[in-house]
Amino acid sequence: MLAGIAPLFGATEFVRPAIDWHAAAPELTLLGFGALITMIDIGWLERARRIAAPLTSLALLVTLVPIITLALDGNDRSMFHGGFVVDDYSLIMKATFVLAGYVVVLMSTNYIAEGDYWENEYYGLLLSSILGMILMASARDLISIFVALELLSIPAYMLATWRKRDLKSNEAGLKYYLMGVFASAVMLYGMSLLYGASGSTLLVDINDAISVATTLDAVVVIGIIFVVVGFAFKVSAFPFHTWAPDTYEGSPTPVTAFISVASKAAGFVALLNLLFVGFLGRDDIFEPLMWALAAASMTAGNLMALRQTNIVRLLAYSGVAQAGYMLAPLAVAGTVPDKALTASVTYLVIYAAMNLGAFAVVIAVARKTRSAKISDYRGLFHYAPGLTVAMTIFLFSLAGIPPLGGWLAKFRVMEAVIEADTASGLVLGIFVAVNSVIALYYYARIGFGMWAEDAPDGDLTPVNVPLSLGVALTLTALITIAMGVVPGDVVGRFTEVSLLAGG
User: Are 266 and 97 spatial neighbours (Cβ–Cβ below 8 Å)?
Assistant: First the structure.
């Protein structure tokens, strides 16, 4: 049949593209388990509730196997004329997404089981979103980037409104959906302009086409700006962050952790793919835009976080500031591309561990307080010393205090912007330093309350931490500490990656 259809489209022979099954194994594994969970849910209904979380955890751990074997193989792999690439960079990000998803499952196990939720669908949507994320890590084509983005975003919209009887959760999901759809439309329009200017959807071909000055320069400028702005919504960069605080507060806390870490990281991965493979020849366009977004995000995010009384909203505005730090190296990507890429990847990996850990503590404390007020953390050391130590690790790591992982993340950012040896880079380095001090104030304020103040109402009842949540806390704390104490062993050898020109 294909042979008969092919002449209608001007083709003489239909040739199936070569598929490297090993390269596609992580995506296929996750897809298979997602289908299995769906079928079990359809067939067993409520009886499937008790195995949904363990099966999802198994799915993510099994998905790590082909990622590890591909890393041990050491060869870069490419399919679909360069539209799908497996290299060190993509494997690092895939492993980050899978591990982040695993931690979110650990955080969700008791939270979802104890609530009035449809458990099986929750885990199916979670796997679907993670599948979009690991696909994004290998996407080097506008079409595959957009498909991966929608695959990770649509389940996240539904997860955000999971508490169906809660008006705040409904509001969270609706805001996230509307802003996400708007961002996708802006981004898609920019992609269509770039396709028109280059005649290709492959990022490498786009870079070759737009790097040469032509009469279509205005189209290229608008296309790049629209694409960057679309992803600025996804990563909650200022002033495109307005959905984040309400969505974080209204969503189930494990979903908030998932959106704040994995979903944001996927948006950054898409930006890295676009900038370093598709737009690197036009750094004169994207560097000033990245500079403005980075400076505004870290400054506005930190200043707004100072006024918060709810710890989830504080972490939301902190996330805006963290997005600014992660965007900073991209403002010098054309000058020191290798340093900029290494800084961004390092920050993404470390941010995933320390932010997930902070949300795990929020879930644990809320099991007793039933709220997320910062005032509830006063005197936490008197009845939950382990949680106090863990939260201190995560907060001070977010602030960039040695020897925790956050210091290495900020050091790599400072190294990149200073090594660029430009006036704009040095000024941006000053922004990073000043904002790190501002952030330390509100992180330290929470720490002081936990260690030095008395518990509200003198209630010293211990916090009951389920086993799965305790495992999530332990994993994230160990990773956060290890990345700061032995950065050369844990991070350095895995983040010296190359993404230039599809390499």
Answer: yes
96-100-102-108 Cα dihedral, nearest 10 degrees: -170
Measured between alpha carbons, how far apart are the two ends of the chain, in Å?
38
% of the chain beyond a pLDDT of 70: 90
Token reading at 352 = 């995933």
Instruction: Please name the residue that has the structure tokens 């991966």.
Output: 148
Weakest mean pLDDT among 91-100, 158-167, 188-197, 400-409: 158-167
Helix or strand or coil: residue 402?
Answer: coil
**Alpha-helical segments (H) within 199-262:** 203-210, 217-234, 244-250, 253-258
Phi and psi angles of residue 455, each rounded to the nearest 5 degrees, phi first: -70, 145
pLDDT attached to residue 191 = 92
Q: What is the pLDDT of residue 325?
A: 93
CA distance 110 to 390: 20
pLDDT at residue 158 is higher than 90:
no
Region class of 442: left (phi > 0), else alpha (psi between -120 and 50), else beta: alpha
CB 460 within 8 A of CB 378: no
The count of C-alpha atoms lying within 13 angstroms of the C-alpha of 406, restricted to the half-sphere facing its C-beta, is 24
SS3 content of the chain, % helix, strand, coil (to 5): 80, 0, 20
Tell me how far apart the alpha carbons of residues 414 and 342 are, in angstroms, rounded to a whole number.
Answer: 12
Among residues 363, 396, 359, the alpha carbon closest in space to that of 481 is found at 396
- For the chain, what are the domain ranges? 281-498
Q: Residue 463 in contact with residue 364, Cβ under 8 Å?
A: yes
CB 393 within 8 A of CB 477: yes
Among the listed residues 136, 142, 129, 123, the one whose alpha carbon sits nearest the alpha carbon of residue 58: 123
Q: What is the pLDDT of residue 394?
A: 93
Contact 316, 260 (CB under 8 A): yes
The two three-digit tokens of residue 76, written as one number: 């870069």
Binned at pLDDT 50, 70 and 90, residue 58 comes out as very high
Q: Do 298 and 239 meet the contact criterion of CB atoms below 8 Å apart?
A: no
The Cα–Cα gap between 150 and 139 comes to 13
Integer Cα distance of 175 and 157 in angstroms: 9
- Tell me, letter by letter, the H, E, C secondary structure of 20-52: CCCCCHHHHHHHHHHHHHHHHHHHHHHHHHHHH
User: pLDDT tens, 39-57?
Assistant: 887 777 667 677 888 888 9
- Dihedral of CA atoms 134, 138, 142, 148 in degrees, nearest 10, equals -10
DSSP string, 127-179: HHHHHHHHHHHHB-BHHHHHHHHHHHHHHHHHHHT--TT-HHHHHHHHHHHHH
**Residue whose structure tokens are 């790599």:** 412
Q: Which two tokens stand for residue 332?
A: 């010098």
For residues 175 and 292, the model is more confident at: 292
